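Lab notebook, bench 4. We co-purified these components, and the gel suggests they stay together. Before we commit to crystallization screens, I want a quick structural picture of the whole thing.
Request: model the full complex, all chains together.
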Amino acid sequence: MGKRRRLPEELGIFGVLVLVAVVMSFLSPEFMTLGNIQVLMLNGTVVAFLALGQTFVLLTGGIDLSVGSNIALTGMMAALAMRAGAPWWFAALVALAAGVVVGLVNGAIIHLVKLPPFIVTFSTFGICASIPKILTGAQSITVADPMFAVIGRGSLFGIPIPVILLAIVAVIFMVILKQTPAGVHIYAVGGNQDASRLAGVNIGRQILTVYAISGLCAGMGGIITTSRLMVGYPTAGSGNEQFYSIASAVVGGVSLFGGVGSILGALLGAILIATVSNGMNVVGVDSFWQPLVIGVIILVGVSLDAVRRRFTLTEGVGRLLNLKGARGSSAPPVPAEAPPQPGPVPGNTK
Amino acid sequence: MTVVGETEGDIVSGQALRAIGIRKLFAGVPALDGVDLTVQAGKVTGLVGHNGAGKSTLLKVLSGAYQPDGGDLLIGEEKVSFSSPATAIASGIATVYQELSLLPNLTIAENAFLGRELAKGGRLDKRAMNEATHELITKFAISADPNRRVGDYPVATRQLLEIAIATSRQARFLLLDEPTTSLEGSQVESLLEMVKNLAKDEGLGIVFINHKLDELFAVSDEVVALVNGKVRIQGPTGRVDRAEVIRAIAGSDVGEVHPPASGKEGGGELPERPIALRVDHLQSNELKDVTLQAREGSVLGIYGLVGSGRTEFLRTLVGLLRTRNGAMSLYGSTYQPRGVADAQRQGVVYLTEERKIDGIVPALNSITNVVLPVLQQYTRLGLLDHRKLRAVSTDLLTQLGIRGDIHAPVVTLSGGNQQKVLLARALAQRPRVLLLDEPTKGVDIGVKSEIHQLLRKLAHETGLAVVVVSGEEEEILEVADEVVTFTLGTCTGQALPASRLTVQSLRHEAWNAA
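Here is the predicted assembly.
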């Protein structure tokens, strides 16, 4: 069976990325230097990690608004563990575990209590923001173990370690999404939850999985943040990280309506956001402008997504079906009591 | 008549709503073919007919939802035409559809005055509205608090409220579309009582559509039977013979003989086959008492009118709905599925009636849609064996003769091809018992007969037990070896060979129990 080759969906976002990079390098000779690229990548990794986790959640039609403060929580957990005498690797595991627990709580409440994800994760955002402050009396905790610094500050062949970690995790996630039953189930749940249930997909397990993965990614973000500063800050992650992570996934083609998107797209989206952000710094745009620009980028990305859904999937297809329906004369000789509405109801869009 | 919160003014009572020679075409085919109907003030007109006879279409013409292609509507001597439901309401025609339309998040009073709220000095006069509503619901003997949300009340109460509120809007005529569908026992009684009183005491002209003949005869002053878009029987209830009505409705295809299905074996010998699925006196919230057997290598047709519990029964069989009582067994051993996945493991697979709602995953391609339930079986070291999955899926889809791009999102395919994708999904699960709910809904005639042939072949050649639910008599007779009938959540399990049934006899059975 010959495999059909289609243009990858991510081509568009890649083109935009190249365009932005070219424009930036014209505006500032500094932009395309090796040093700046390293800074750009390094600064972008935390957001990129969050974006990868966010992608899983968005694919099921959910959203995770707790990742920002989860960075503070997990980063602080690592710092506290090391202050209590734990080795650096154990501290990192503690941080990841804390992140996963937050995710599992999110997923469990969303699935069992049937609440909208944004309400649940918005609440856990507040909870996660408070815990590190309560634990430390809002003090920052200094980390002494030099090995821990390697995670955030080290590099291998000139590539920063966080970027390497990001690449490894991204590859693992791609495999999970494309090569495992769980991955396909996640797409299915986001595409049509009722149909998935009827096909025997365990909805609850997928929901738990995606929020746990998002929590895990927040844990990675927490470790990297604490490691770069060698200080656990109770207010880490309270900046634009969360906002940018959703932006990354969305401009990377991950649909806010669920069921559509890819890890590669989200990754490219994160690089684009990092590039725009870094580029504005390098060019010397006032930093007050950055969230505004990113906000506009999100709006454009989401609008394109909505328009694309409406026009290609729904309307285009609807029209097609309509034509076929009329020609194929699906109507019985005696019309049904309630004759079909003009134009079939298009796909089950939520 | 009294009208809540409005001046009584110039309502002329005692006039009739008349439809004369109403025609309505859909795609050139007449759904109503010259219908005359008179709705007398103070009288209940019971409207009855089989699915597709034109009852709902007629109702929609009277309520302004459809514009007729021919004929006249008159109120008294005055000719009227309704360009929209709003104009019909303004002329005093209130309609209560099967689906409840009150807003559950608003109070009863807020619903009653929606769009015509009473205000005093720019502020809502809640007290006046509550009082008026209280008066209204007391008049109808509904026990409810005007100040509480509609959603707090059970469906039966909401149905009564719906009618009460509809009549409060200066209604002279009331159109009721199967108002008792979701009610039971005493609730039906009180609704029928209310309908009678509305006609007698308030002088309303009422059209009452119902599938249940007992109720229809109990409440109506006049009975009208529609058959194929024409009035077949019309007369005062006392002088219309119930059996005659059933004959008219059921026998609408007189002369049309059931075509012999290709390759259909003779009746008799089938019952010898072993029983695959056995259901004894199954009861649940949705089912009253269901007994039946599905045999290996045979197609069992389940026929029933809408609301007979046929869909709920299939959903119960795959664990989507809970049972309360009764026994199910699969090849002799007790069968009690905990959910769809559990039913699947035991070889019972269900194909939904609502393709778009819980059938396809629109954005995924056909290949993935087919193998969605069986991904776990095609993994190596936890990773999907894409090549095998594609082979399995393409193989099934080719066998089913799918047309269209199977690599594109499944929603881009036509309805018939989407149905084939779902059939392929069912077969990919290697079922022992295959349950299909309206398997040819919304597919064209060509694909329809393909699906029928496929189902028969699957049963007869691979020994699968196939159960097909359909409200279409021709389909049941075409595809089934044996047929059972569902009426009002009940099935006696008495299976008749399809070869001895006709469209009329099927309808007759379904209506007789109604």
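Chain B touches chain A through 56 residues (CB under 8 Å). Worth comparing against the SEC data before the next meeting. Chain B is about 30% helix and 25% strand.
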